[in-house]
From TrEMBL:
This is Protein rolling stone. PANTHER family: IP08657P-RELATED, OS02G0130600 PROTEIN-RELATED. The chain crosses the membrane at residues 40-65, 77-101, 121-144, 156-175, 182-202, 225-247. Pfam families: Rost (PF21534). It comes from Anopheles coluzzii (African malaria mosquito).
Amino acid sequence: MTGKFVASCKEELEVRNCGFAHLPAEEFVKSQWQTRTKSIFFLLYRLALAIFFTGVVINSVVVAVERGEFSKYFIYLTHWGILLCMGTTIMGAILVMVWHFHPEYSEKVCNSDEMPNAFKIYWMLHNITLILSVCITIIYWAILHNESMPVDPNNILIHACNCVFMFLDLIIVAYPVRIWHVLQPITFGLVYCIFSVIYYAADGTDRFGRPYIYNVLDWNEPGKAMVTVVGTILLAMIVHMLMFAIYKLRVKIYLRYFNHKPIIPTNSTLQLQTGKCDGISMVYGSDNKAFSISERY
């Protein structure tokens, strides 16, 4: 099993896996575990997740306003993270709704030899949000949190639930994790790092008036700050490899225990033409007995 995983990693490191090419594209609007081409349960899940993270953001804003700290709201990486969670899950919900209620769009996606740009943007956002959420949770509870910081509902929502729900999302969705895509959250992290340098140079302060955003990212001590930056990059790489391993395990479990179940076409699915979209899907499997030979896709 270890040998297969190593071989899989080597294959993933091919240059062609740096970009956003992936077929079948419909895996971005489906669950790994659904048994129909369109699942109302997955749609409801997507909507619920988007509503949840929207609520988390609204709650965090209300808390910041009540504490008189809203002017500093957007300087914290935690808030960047939950805003990304909200944006990513809202976009995911919209894509699934369009797939579910617009058969002509479903046909277009299925018959295309290239992923829609909206799917590529969503994939990138999900990659960044997943790794960022896990890293934020680890760094906060392992390094930043102290006794003066209350463990209240808002703290749990923005420093724990983000990680938990994005991790669960990885288990539920059907699309892959690419090793090279670790560059995306790292790039996002470097953008925040540059922002923190500019903020420091502009004499910016945290919510307590101290000349830094985080004490571990204090540019008065550039050596210490650079250790934080390098350490965070290494953490992101480790977390990403762990997410890649979990993705591989997810697919392995599906292929071993669920792949024999046929995909049942729904009435809302547009009839697809013969010979179109005949790629093997992690959702469909290689033998979809719910369709005749002329209807498989």
